[in-house]
Amino acid sequence: MKNNIPWANFHDQLHQAFGKSLKCADDLYFNVIKRREIGEIIHLEDLESLKFLQELHRMRGELCIITDYCYEKKCGPFLVEADEITDFVGGFKSRYGEAFYSTDVIIISFAEKLIWVLFHEGICWLSRG
């Protein structure tokens, strides 16, 4: 399993970096610098969902990743290095027993103050803090 950070630490970092709190993915729709309409999502393969996010902006350094798994298992967000994200996402289902993308995926770079969101309504966006 990749490292996870406790939810309390995540919320503190989010507030420090962006001045925001997170109750749902909608809360991260601010300072949008890039947006893409995918259309109604029936099903996305995990690596396809990652591709949509990566097309918004290059990912670098340590990334904080939130999937439904993080909420369901109360494990907190994953910490993954950008150069390992493809392997992480590609092996997610076999490692954790569920798809990487099921409703929303959030990826945050606290260092670069960027937030990637793949929203369940078929929209992905990039916010800058």
Describe it:
The chain is 29% helix and 26% strand. It has 129 residues and is α+β, with helices and mostly antiparallel strands. It has one domain (3-14, 28-128). It has a seven-stranded antiparallel β-sheet. β5 and β6 (114-119) form a beta hairpin. The protein is globular.
Radius of gyration: 13 Å
Percent of sequence in beta strands = 25-35%
Distance between the termini: 29 Å
Number of domains: 1
Looking across the biggest beta sheet, what order are the strands in? Answer: 1-4-3-5-6-7-2
Overall average pLDDT = 93
Specify the structural class: alpha+beta
Global morphology: globular
Briefly summarize what is shown.
This protein has 129 residues and is of the alpha+beta class.
Helix-strand layout with pairing:
Layout: E1 3-4, H1 7-18, E2 32-37, H2 46-54, E3 62-66, H3 68-72, E4 78-81, H4 85-90, H5 92-96, E5 105-109, E6 114-119, E7 123-128
Antiparallel strand pairs: 1-4, 2-7, 3-4, 3-5, 5-6, 6-7
Which structural traits does this protein have?
129 residues; alpha+beta; 7-stranded antiparallel β-sheet; 7 strands; 26% strand; globular
